[in-house]
Structures are given as C-alpha cells and as structure tokens.
Design goal:
Shape: elongated
Structural class: mainly alpha
Number of strands: 0
Order of helices and strands: HHHHHH
Largest sheet: none
Helix content: 55-70%
Number of helices: 6
Radius of gyration: 24 Å
Length: 167
C-alpha cells in the first residue's frame, strides 16, 4: 500500500528520504486498525502532494498559504454571519418569525451556520474539526441553488410606531 504513495513524492526527495518514510510508516501502523492505517496513508499522500507542488513550510507559497488560511476562514465566517444576521433581523422585525421550510433558502441558512461554527472552531484551536465543518458548509452553499433575496423580507407590522410626535 505504501509503494504507490511513495511514488507521489518528487524523485529526488524519494531517493533521499524514501526509506525513512517507509520505516516510520511501518512502525506507526504495526498492529493498528484499518482506519488508522488509512489515516496514516492519507497523511503521507498529503505530504507527498505538498512536496510535489512546492507548498512546504520552507517555501514562500507554503508560508503564504499558512498565513492566509485564518484570514480566509474569517472572511467566510463574516459572509455567512451576514446571511444569518439578515434572517434573524427579518424574524425579529416581523410579527411572525419566518418559517424554516425545506427549501433552498433554509439549506443556505443551515450551511451558513455550519460555516460560521466551523470557522470559529478552527480559529479557536480545533483546526481540523473546524475546517471540516467549514468545508462541508461551503460545499453545501455551493451546491444549493441560488435563493431570492426577497425571502427574508420583513412583513409590515401592525405595531404602533414608537416615534414621539411633538405638539
């Protein structure tokens, strides 16, 4: 199983460090469950692809992406937070809270909530879980059909105006 994974590494790196990678892999999966072996193989494949693409911690591209990742998570959280805020304001200002019907607007609402929770989770230290939640939410947002902007509309209220009129 490790043989094809080692071929993902650049040739020069594979010659220099291939035996060490193989030894560490064998030691780490000795007596491990199938899920753990698969996880270790995925880590090796990810590292090999980063090496092949030149996105390592010693390269400029790798450092740039490492610096940009938290900002990208913050922008995604802000965008989806605005979407959630629009829904909440529409519900707070209307006499009847907007229903959560099984339509594309509700899918976008829950996807936005998942992105916000994922980004906050990632930015507060649980990077892997947060990134998974944010990626799933963003994928659901990308797959959901566009919704009309008129959905979270505010229904005119029959409440009295609180403005004071001067005599």
């Amino acid at each position: 199983m490790i043989g094809p994974l080692l071929r993902l590494y650049p040739r020069r790196y594979r010659i220099e460090a291939g035996e060490e990678i193989l030894a560490v892999y064998r030691e780490s999966v000795d007596g491990a469950r199938a899920v753990d072996r698969l996880r270790e193989a995925a880590d090796i494949a990810g590292h090999a692809l980063r090496m092949r693409l030149g996105v390592t911690s010693s390269s400029t591209a790798g450092r740039l992406l490492a610096e940009a990742a938290p900002q990208v998570a913050g922008v995604a959280a802000a965008y989806c937070g605005v979407h959630l805020s629009r829904w909440y304001v529409a519900g707070a200002l209307s006499p009847a809270f907007p229903p959560l019907d099984p339509d594309s607007w509700t899918v976008r609402l829950f996807s936005s909530a998942l992105v916000v929770v994922g980004a906050v989770t990632a930015l507060t230290g649980r990077w892997r879980a947060g990134v998974w939640a944010a990626v799933v939410g963003l994928a659901a947002l990308a797959r959901s059909p566009p919704s009309s902007a008129a959905r979270p509309s505010v229904i005119p209220s029959s409440r009295p105006s609180w403005r004071c009129s001067r005599p």
